[in-house]
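Re-run requested by the PI after the first attempt was lost when the workstation crashed. Everything re-entered from the original request form. Ligand of interest: glutathione.
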Amino acid sequence: MPKLYDSKFSGNAWKVRILLSRLAIPYERITLDLAKGEAKEPGFAAKSRFQRVPALELDDGRCIVESCAMMLYLAEGSDLLPADPVARADVVSWLFFEQADLTKPLAIPRFFHLRGIAGEMAARIAALQEQGYPALDKLEAWIAPREWLSEGRCTLADLGVYPYVALAHEGGYDMSRYPGIGAWLKRVEAEPGWAPLIEEGAR
Ligand SMILES: N[C@@H](CCC(=O)N[C@@H](CS)C(=O)NCC(=O)O)C(=O)O
């Protein structure tokens, strides 16, 4: 059974957990405490070369790092990742957009809020939001007249872009500006296998 190394608040790990659940793949979940520096410990660093979660350890001991690489590996052969090269490239383009344009501007302000240091980091948050809002504007322009990001159905594109957009409000983003995104988030949440970031009852 594969092992998924994650952390409680990681949107990148949430992405992979939603996919594992959607594909009904059993796995062992190992949750690290990043605040205690557990991602930097030598045992974990030997598995995850960038010393970050998520990391997916396969039965033969090989480890896949980078959430989108895990998604591509796990979704191979499923209807979430088209076989046609052009359709596949379109789906994958959203994973690149998420990593290049969305993740940091959305995740870092959230991290400052979660750590209770948003006040002292206000200038940094404002600078990140200057990058994040234009990316969200592009996402809104694309999704508002559509139901799904690619292929006219739920694909890896939607599952990959979803987590940090769904969490953006925790970083102080005003998501009321984006009704199209709001409707799309609800569609993703109604998909089979979707699970909340923190399961009900978990502490
Ligand atoms: N591009 C990477 C980003 C992974 C990442 O930034 N992980 C964060 C948590 S979401 C982490 O492990 N940080 C290490 C630390 O805080 O010590 C991915 O998509 O997997």
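Saved to the shared folder this time. The helical segments are 11-22, 42-45, 67-75, 85-114, 122-143, 156-166, 179-189.
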